[in-house]
Design a protein that fits this description.
By secondary structure, this protein is mostly helical. The chain has 16 helices and 2 strands. The structure holds geranylgeranyl diphosphate. Geranylgeranyl diphosphate binds next to helix 4, helix 9, helix 10 and helix 11.
């Protein structure tokens, strides 16, 4: 923190990503106008854009001089659409029932629960349409050096798998079930919590890094290494989210705190305490930085971003 050079670079990247996202927005017209408005309202509400940012940076690191950002743009947009759909659905009355997100009213608070559900569905489908629309660019990529022959298809598979039942949706399922769990054994609770954090939050961060690596020309073993770095950052990110739900504030977070207590959620903080949680965020993030170092990417913007996130306030 306090590194204004880094913060200026961060701001410039967010603006770049906003431009990419805007160019992919569906037109608000026709009989489906209302759902499209709700989708665009949610997508352009001003999130941190961390997942497309991590994807872009990883792509640039692996692609090096041969980087052509246009290759990664459709996947960046797809990732932010999937992330946004998950937030829209997570905020619904049937889930966390939250009224504020990204500093403004949640989608269901503005458009109603039915339209917000549809907006999430619309974003998820449009995400895949957008990623697939990059096929022409994908065809230009060299062959994947691992067991999969086509880098573009390998990236699509990661995108869809990590967002689904073997990723984010699986984690969200376990999270909901954990609200009424009768498990009291601390080790068992800890295993369950790690599954939730790995999947609910870790999966999309892992896939953002993996897609960047795959399209950038990484080998199968490099993709595995970057997946582990993504897992560390994802779990650290969730623990920090749990910390901020207690010590953060509405102005910085753009949403009220105390949601975990309200929903009686088990978190790393409730299991191990605040200090242990802060230590864990640092330990996991440092391990992710070590992986980048081993890959030859020490002091990259991505590395600085991992370190910056340890002390994030929003
Ligand atoms: C299928 C009905 C249905 C719902 C799916 C999968 C799911 C709903 C929700 C899980 C997603 C979730 C809320 C994960 C928590 C991860 C997290 C900390 C999200 C916040 O990410 P930030 O801080 O958000 O990057 P911004 O707003 O900055 O983009």
């Amino acid at each position: 923190m306090g590194d204004t050079g880094f913060e200026a670079e961060l701001k410039q990247r967010v603006e770049y990503i906003e431009g990419v996202l805007k160019s992919g927005l569906p037109k608000e017209e026709g009989y489906a106008k209302t759902v499209i408005e709700a989708m665009n309202y949610s997508l352009m509400a001003g999130g941190k854009r961390l997942r497309p940012m991590m994807m872009l940076e990883t792509y640039r690191l692996f692609a090096g001089d041969s980087a052509d950002d246009a290759v990664i743009h459709p996947f960046m947009t797809a990732m932010e659409m999937i992330h946004t759909y998950s937030l829209v659905h997570d905020d619904l009355p049937a889930m966390d029932n939250d009224e504020y997100r990204r500093g403004r009213k949640t989608t269901h608070a503005v458009y109603g629960a039915g339209m917000a559900t549809l907006a999430g569905d619309g974003l998820l489908n449009l995400a895949y349409e957008t990623a697939i629309s990059g096929a022409a660019l994908g065809a230009k990529l060299s062959e994947y050096d691992g067991e999969t022959k086509n880098r573009y298809l390998a990236a699509l598979k990661v995108l869809s798998t990590k967002a689904g039942i073997y990723g984010m949706v699986g984690g969200q399922c376990a999270d909901i079930m954990a609200e009424n769990t009768d498990i009291t054994d601390k080790d068992e609770l800890s295993t369950l919590l790690r599954y939730i954090d790995d999947n609910k939050t870790g999966a999309l961060i892992e896939s953002s890094l993996m897609i960047g690596a795959i399209l950038g020309g990484a080998s199968a073993s490099q993709v595995k290494a970057i997946e582990k770095a993504g897992n560390n950052v994802g779990v650290a990110f969730q623990i920090q989210d749990d910390i901020l739900d207690i010590v953060g504030n509405l102005e910085e977070l753009g949403k009220p705190i105390g949601s975990d207590e309200k929903n009686q959620k088990t978190t790393y903080v409730s299991l191990y305490g605040m200090e242990a949680a802060k230590d864990k965020v640092k330990e996991l993030s440092d391990e992710a930085s070590d992986i980048l170092k081993e890959l030859g990417f020490k002091d990259s913007f991505l590395d600085k971003l991992f370190q910056y996130l340890i002390y994030r306030r929003k």
